Amino acid sequence: MKKNLYIIGAALLTFFVSGCEKEFLDKQPTQYLTPEQIAEAAKTDPGLLNGQIAGLYSTMYNTGTGGTTGHDDFGQKGYDIYSDMLASDMALAGTNYGWYTGVARYQASSDYTLNAVYMPWRYYYRVIYAANNVIDALGGTDAVQTEPLQRHIMGQAKAMRGYAYFYLTQFYSAGYGTGQEKILPIYTDSKQPNQPKSTTEEVYNLMIDDLTEAVDYLVDFNRLTKDQVDATVAKGLLSYALAARGTTEDLNRVVALTNEVINGSAYRITNENELYGKIVDGVLVNPESGFNNVATPSWMWGVDLTLANRLNLVSWWGQVDYYTYSYAWAGDPKTMDRNLQNSIGAKDLRRKQFHSTGRPLYKFFDPARKIGGQRQVTTDYVYMRIEEMILMNAEAKARLGDDAGAKEMLKKLMVERIEEDGYEAYETYLSGLNGQALKDEIFLQTRIELWGEGKAYLALKRNKQSVTRGANHLFFAGDTFSWDSDEMTFPIPQAEVLNNPVLND
């Protein structure tokens, strides 16, 4: 069971009843702790910062963290929907309520006044600010931590700051690596005034330094719950950042890091009974399916949602799941792109995750499977799973020219995804692929495996690929969009342009 709510309460209780001097409390009574109070209290009780870290993680699933009251404003999983729609793998198949229309129509890619442009920016910079509060309390970005508690707290804060900058580069920049294009403001402490845009190179250097340090600091951290970042998750985040920058050195590091995760952790590939719902005489016979339980052995990072989180219609499940009281049930279904669905082989088990309409009726669902049934969301969120590491390892090897190694890694996944009587034919097909054709196959399998999980957009950009929308899209059906098309990147939102006078200095 999730313990983050208890961690917050315990940390705050520690602050008010333990080592802090009474006059400090008398002079500065407040419902919320300022960064200065946090830093002062942490000198006496560094464990207080665990509560701040727990609050940082809750930002990932709380509603309104993008600064609006919109029903698409609910943290990371909301932006996973954005990215799947930008990449065209998720088709918006109804507009009765209008959520995501601006993204699906690529209006948000050109109109900096839309909330769809503002919310990711506000959310990820909110994460950065909160992470910086913790980092400042431990002495700042360059402070070296030697005590286990402080190292673990700093490692988590640096990981979350790196995570946020990574997603900002994806949504608001088309450039990668060592480029000198100015893309985003950098904030490395909570007291900095408005900052101008920094270059792609500077932003990537910061996030990769953060995530590298996080891996080092968290090596002996034993997390209590999967919503926390440990060394394995930090390696996954670092792999994403390195793969996006994509130098030869970076890709070799991706191979090494993902190998460590694949071979050195207890996570295993989602098995057939977990992969799709099996219905016999109208009854679900494999309750371990549904991608709704953080305890699933393939999940590296996720959150155990309970009634205490008070999530309902405004949630990922409230937007995607037919078996939740949701927009997907009531008139705005989200479906798999028709071209992508047609590309799934007849012997591929993942074909069984989707209805013929493209609805993910057998991949994502509330276990009760009552149409429009789940009102208070207790089905969990997945942020990262082991299959991502396998696919990224295969991709990095292919990009490095190691076709044989890439094929062997891809087989590790595909032997679990192709029915036994069809695997030999797939293996023969795969053996004939080399170079770009092999890269294309890995990209395709990434899109199929991770549909609805917000990862196809990241793969599209780092592999410099194009996608053509299928016939079931309401907008731009049949049109092709490249990774560097204007449609793939958001402009900096109006609020930042108006409120940051030094943005373009």
CATH architectural category: Alpha Horseshoe
**What is the subunit organization of this protein?**
single chain
What is the residue-averaged pLDDT? 92
Shape call: globular
Question: How far is it from the N-terminal to the C-terminal residue, by CA?
Answer: 48 Å
Structural class: mainly alpha
The number of domains is 1
In total, the number of strands is 10
CATH class: Mainly Alpha
Query: Order of strands side by side in the largest beta sheet?
Result: 1-7
Q: Please bin the fraction of helical residues.
A: 40-55%
- The whole-angstrom Rg is 22 Å
CATH topology: Serine Threonine Protein Phosphatase 5, Tetratricopeptide repeat
- Tell me about the largest β-sheet: 2 strands, antiparallel
- SS summary, helix count: 21
How large a portion of the residues is in β-strands, by DSSP E? 5-15%
Low-pLDDT stretches are 1-31
